[in-house]
Amino acid sequence: MSKKFLFKGAATAVVTPFDNSGNIDLKELSRIIEFQISQKIDAIVLCGTTGEAPTLSDTEHQKMIAHAAEIVNGRIPLICGTGSNDTAHAIMMSKCASANGATGLLLVTPYYNKTNSKGLIKSFSAIADSVDLPMIIYNVPSRTTVDIPLEVYRTLSVHPNIVGVKEASTNIGKFARLVYETENELFIYTGNDDNLISTLAVGGMGIISVTSNIIPKYIHDICENWFNKEYDTAQKMHIKLCELNSLLFSDINPIPVKAAMRILGYSCGKPRLPLVEMSDEGQRLLKNELKRLNII
């Protein structure tokens, strides 16, 4: 079996814009999506960590997906986060996302109550059995305290609807092993912007990026140069972003990237509690770096 990947290159984990009253600003979401598509981003990821999914109600979640699907209109893949620590809830959200126009799903590992390897396999398989959409498993142990073992990936790789992995860990050796053991069955994406070149170098398919909220074409071009075997160009472009990437993860995501978006003129609002705004000093450093890179 050889599966088809959802996307190759750079996908943006888009922020969720809130208005002054704290409600989702669908008009601004449209503006963000149109900017991303105009800048050659390869896919949109909605309602993930960067999109503050844990603070969205089910109604808000599905309203966003339906609106984004209408704006994207099939031009690029629309991948929507529907994972949960409650498998039944994840199944319900996945079915709704499919009905509302998602073209792929992002499924985070169960958090808080957690589970073992057997539970991971049964949970992800049950979700994948419930909806006929390609799915990316999302491993982010820094938030969930669950780190998916290789044997779980091997088992899940045989499911026709499970096509990829978003690894938001720093174990590049594990990335390489994943590519080696599941090539053409699971496509590997990094969720850490500072790991992009390392991931591509071991055979990864690309990135689900935070930084590309700000510079989507630049992140797309890093990937495109790498796939075109312009390795030196891609590497130099990546290194140029070291300080920006560091600042964008200097506080809990998406606190810094929402600050950066506001600096760029987007009305994306404050993060929802329990997240708070970036410190004044952090915003100053971020603004200086955006100026240094001629982004503003």
Polypeptide structure, described:
The chain has 296 residues and is an alpha/beta fold. The chain has one domain: Aldolase class I (TIM Barrel). It contains 13 helices and eight strands. The protein has helices spanning 26-38, 58-72, 87-99, 117-130, 141-144, 150-156, 172-182, 196-201, 216-227, 231-240, 242-248, 255-263, 280-292; strands spanning 9-13, 43-46, 78-81, 104-108, 135-139, 162-167, 187-190, 206-209. An eight-stranded parallel β-barrel has the order 1-2-3-4-5-6-7-8, surrounded by six helices. Strand 4 (104-108), helix 4 and strand 5 (135-139) form a beta-alpha-beta unit. Helix 11 (242-248) runs antiparallel to helix 13 (280-292). The longest helix has 15 residues, at 58-72.
What Rg do the Cα atoms give? 18 Å
What is the correct CATH architecture?
Answer: Alpha-Beta Barrel
Q: Please state roughly what percent of the residues sit in beta strands, choosing from under 5%, 5-15%, 15-25%, 25-35%, 35-45% or over 45%.
A: 5-15%
| CATH topology title | TIM Barrel
Total strands = 8
Main beta-sheet strand count, sense and barrel state: 8 strands, parallel, barrel
- What is the number of helical segments per DSSP (H or I, 4+ residues)? 13
Question: Runs with pLDDT <50, length 5+?
Answer: none
The CATH superfamily is identified as Aldolase class I
The CATH class name reads: Alpha Beta
Distance linking N and C termini: 47 Å
Give the SSE order as H and E letters.
EHEHEHEHEHHEHEHEHHHHH
Shape: globular
**Which structural class fits the helix and strand makeup?**
alpha/beta
Strand line-up of the largest beta sheet: 1-2-3-4-5-6-7-8
**Average pLDDT level:** 96
